[in-house]
Write a structure and sequence with these properties.
Blueprint (H helix, E strand, L loop, with lengths): L1 H4 L4 H18 L7 H18 L4 H9 L4 H27 L4 H21 L15 H6 L6 H4 L11 H16 L3 H20 L5 H21 L2 H6 L1
């Protein structure tokens, strides 16, 4: 518990996050993640969105596809932003706001752990693999084959719910919006989750409710982080 309550050396922090990724690699293959099973769950999500009157992901993607060059840009952004912005903000918080880092880091770890449980118990195909007419714009326009054997060794194709692309964007976006001294940076932080939502929907990688689930696990992870952080640090976060 001491680790979760305070910032450690850079070496320890990097090692811990690499260990988290290693755990993900071990756990992601567990459970019944058959293609048919994952597609059934995706159909359940679409049915729920239709019942709620919020199913519009196909329309968003079709609009994007009509703008020359935009699908390629969003395809690259889907890959690059998730990694670069998340890592960059973690480094920034560690270097510039060290006392706030434990809450941010522990929120990420806790939300990822909660997501792993859901991935095992409820595998869901992303829209591009759900057989619902969505295009795979990352593969088709950015030239990055998400279904290749190489990339499949680094991620779980049926881990669409919750969306950690959105969840991480919400976490680091809020961190920047709350901690940055520059008004433009605060605005960028506040806007980043919405930008990521647009990216994950328009590229056919997540439904709206996937993002909602990502927001919930990050909120739960934040509550866990607040509970284990030192009282003075939790109150400041």
């Amino acid at each position: 518990m001491r680790y979760f309550a305070r910032p450690e050396s850079g070496t320890v922090e990097v090692a811990a996050l690499l260990a988290l990724y290693g755990l993900y690699e071990v756990v992601r293959g567990f459970g019944d993640a058959s293609f048919a099973f994952a597609r059934e769950h995706a159909s359940d999500i679409v049915a729920l969105e239709r019942a709620l009157g919020v199913y519009g992901e196909r329309t968003v993607q079709e609009l994007v596809m009509n703008i020359p060059g935009l699908p390629s840009v969003l395809g690259f952004a889907y890959i690059a932003l998730h990694i670069a912005v998340t890592v960059g903000v973690l480094i920034w918080v560690y270097q510039r706001h060290r006392t706030r880092f434990p809450v941010v880091r522990t929120s990420l770890i806790a939300s990822t752990a909660l997501s792993l449980v859901v991935y095992v118990l409820y595998p869901v195909a992303p829209p591009r693999l759900a057989g619902l007419g969505f295009a795979d714009t990352v593969t088709d326009h950015a030239g990055i084959n998400l279904s290749s054997d190489l990339l499949a060794s680094f991620y779980n194709p049926f881990a669409a719910v919750p969306s950690l692309h959105f969840g991480y964007a919400l976490l680091v976006g809020v961190a920047v919006a709350m901690l940055a001294g520059n008004r433009a940076l605060r605005f960028a932080g506040a806007a980043y989750p919405l930008v990521m939502l647009f990216i994950i929907v328009s590229t056919g990688n997540h439904f709206l409710l996937d993002a909602v689930a990502g927001g919930f696990v990050v909120a739960a992870g934040w509550l866990v982080a607040r509970a284990v952080a030192r009282p003075s640090e939790a109150a400041a976060a």
